[in-house]
Amino acid sequence: MGRKNIIYNHRSIVEGDMSLVEIIGDSTNCAQHDTLTYTALWTGGALTNGKLVIEASLDGDTWTELDFADTIQVDGAADYLRAIVNEIGFSYIRPKYVRINPAATGIINVTVFASNRGA
Fold first, then answer.
1. 21-103 topology per CATH
2. With CB atoms 3.0 to 4.6 Å apart as the test, which of 31, 41, 86, 97 could cross-link to 23 if both were Cys?
């Protein structure tokens, strides 16, 4: 029988103010999970421009930014995006919003869902 560990949808960033330089989301213990899905939903002004960064840690204290090859862009008045992280080699993971344009305004919510894919 296959294993099935699930973290149901949990808001890691709640009503984050996108005018802030950065917003660090709650960390998720992912030691027993294979896949995490982050969904970001935001509303803002036309000048809103930032990026979503996913950070990982072995101990919950020292964080490393994961490299997705491309920037996970958060821009425009209102939109959403989904970032999927597979085969996690860390114990903890968290999202971080980083503002690029100082004129950015708006609210961002980031939700995480974690599960295992295999046996």
1. Immunoglobulin-like (2.60.40)
2. 97
